[in-house]
Specification:
The protein is mainly alpha-helical. About 60% of the residues lie in helices and about 5% in strands. The protein is built from 17 helices and four strands. Helix 9 runs parallel beside helix 11, helix 10 packs parallel to helix 12 and helix 14 crosses helix 15.
C-alpha cells in the first residue's frame, strides 16, 4: 500500500522570521512587506531593483527605502550598497545588491568567517547600544506614512490615536483628511513622539502662522531626530527657536534689511553667535556692517563675522571701547611704519669710498 499526501500550497514554503511580525508588522505598509517577502522568497536567486519591481508592482525608486526600513529593525543589514541577511535572521550566504542590473545582483558568499563578519553588523553591540539609550531615534531615512487601510484600522481600535485626531481637529478647526491622520500616526508610532508633545507641536505651528500638517510633519521629524520626547524638551526647543528668531531680528534691523523672507540656517547661526553669545548691541552690529560695506562694497556676513570676532577677542563691548581700540591700533600701525621707513636724505650724505 502506498501513501501520498497532497500538501497543496504547503509543498512550497519559505521562512519568515518571527521578528518581522513581532516588531516590524505594526508600522510596515504594503510596500515594505511586498519588497521583503519577495526578497525572502527569492533569496537564492539573482535580483535587482527591476526584478523586485516587476515581481511586486512596487515603484523602483521606493525599493531602497523599503529595504532600509527592515535594516532599521535588524531584519536586513547593509554595507555600502549591499543588503544582507544577518546570521540570526536568515541564511547568511545571500546578499542583495541595490545597484543596477549591470552589476552582480545576489552573490553566494564563499569567503571565510572573518570576511563574513566584516559584512555583517555586530548584532550584540547593537543590542547593547539600544539598552544604553533611554530613547532610540527612528532609523528610517525618510519615515513613510502608513497607507489608507492601515490608518483606518488603527483609528478604529487605537483610542490614543482617536484622541490625538480629535484634539488636532479642534486645534486646526477642520476635519483632518486620511493623509493628515496618517501623518499623526507616523509621528506617534514611527517617530515615537508622545501625544502631548505632538499637540504642543501643533499649537506651536499654529502660533507662527503655519498651521498645516505639512509643517507639523517636517518639524515633528526634526524633533524626533533631535530626541525631543518630553514636554520640557519641547518647550525648551520652542524657546530656543523663538530666541534664535529674535536674535536675527536684531541683526536684520541693525543692517537695515527688510522683506528678506525666511533666513537661512547660516544666517540664524550668525545671529545666535553675534547677539546671543557675544552680546553685541545693534550699534556695534551696524558699525561692523558699515565697515564691511566700505571695504567690500557689499554686505558680506563672513567678513562681518571676522570683524566681530576680532572685537570679541579683544573685549570690545561698546562704541567707547571701539574708539579706544581704534586709536591704539592706529598708533601701533604708525609706529611700525616709522620703524620700517628709510631716511633717504641721510643716505645721500653718506660718502661713497673710492675704489
Amino acid at each position: 500500500m502506498s501513501i501520498k499526501i497532497n500538501l497543496g500550497a504547503w509543498s512550497s514554503v519559505f521562512a519568515v522570521p518571527s521578528k518581522i511580525v513581532d516588531e516590524g508588522l505594526k508600522m510596515s505598509d504594503g510596500v515594505k512587506l511586498k519588497v521583503l517577502l519577495y526578497v525572502l522568497r527569492n533569496a537564492d536567486k539573482k535580483l535587482d531593483n527591476t526584478d523586485i519591481s516587476e515581481g511586486t508592482g512596487v515603484n523602483v525608486t521606493d525599493i531602497p527605502e523599503a529595504l532600509d526600513y527592515w535594516v532599521s529593525l535588524g531584519i536586513l543589514s547593509k554595507c555600502e550598497d549591499i543588503y544582507s541577511f544577518p546570521e540570526d535572521t536568515y541564511n547568511k550566504e545571500y546578499q542583495y545588491d541595490i545597484n543596477n542590473s549591470d552589476t552582480e545582483k545576489i552573490s553566494v558568499s564563499d569567503k571565510n568567517e572573518e570576511a563574513d563578519k566584516e559584512l555583517m553588523p555586530n548584532i550584540k553591540d547593537e543590542k547593547n547600544d539600544s539598552k544604553s539609550d533611554k530613547k532610540q531615534h527612528f532609523a528610517v531615512t525618510r519615515p513613510q506614512k502608513p497607507d489608507y487601510v492601515f490608518t483606518s484600522q488603527r483609528l478604529a481600535v487605537d483610542e490614543e490615536l482617536a484622541l490625538l485626531v480629535n484634539e488636532a481637529q479642534s486645534a486646526f478647526g477642520k476635519t483632518l483628511s486620511n493623509s493628515d491622520i496618517a501623518t499623526l500616526l507616523m509621528l506617534k508610532d514611527t517617530c515615537g513622539l508622545p501625544l502631548d508633545v505632538i499637540l504642543m507641536l501643533i499649537q506651536y505651528c499654529i502660533s507662527i502662522g503655519k498651521g498645516n500638517m505639512r509643517t507639523v510633519e517636517k518639524i515633528g521629524i526634526g524633533w524626533a531626530d533631535d530626541g525631543i520626547y518630553t514636554l520640557e524638551a519641547a518647550d525648551n526647543k520652542i524657546r530656543q527657536i523663538k530666541q534664535t528668531g529674535k536674535n536675527f531680528a536684531v541683526v536684520s534691523s541693525a543692517f537695515g534689511l527688510s522683506n528678506i523672507g525666511s533666513p537661512t540656517k547660516k544666517q540664524l547661526e550668525y545671529g545666535d553667535k553675534w547677539v546671543g553669545e557675544w552680546k553685541f548691541s545693534p550699534e556695534m552690529l551696524r558699525e561692523a556692517y558699515e565697515r564691511c560695506v566700505d571695504t567690500k562694497g557689499i554686505m558680506n556676513l563672513k567678513y562681518i563675522d571676522g570683524i566681530l570676532k576680532r572685537w570679541h577677542a579683544n573685549g570690545i563691548c561698546n562704541t567707547n571701547d571701539l574708539i579706544t581700540f581704534d586709536k591704539l591700533s592706529s598708533k601701533q600701525s604708525d609706529k611700525k611704519k616709522s620703524s620700517s621707513s628709510i631716511d633717504y636724505s641721510k643716505l645721500n650724505k653718506l660718502s661713497i669710498p673710492d675704489v
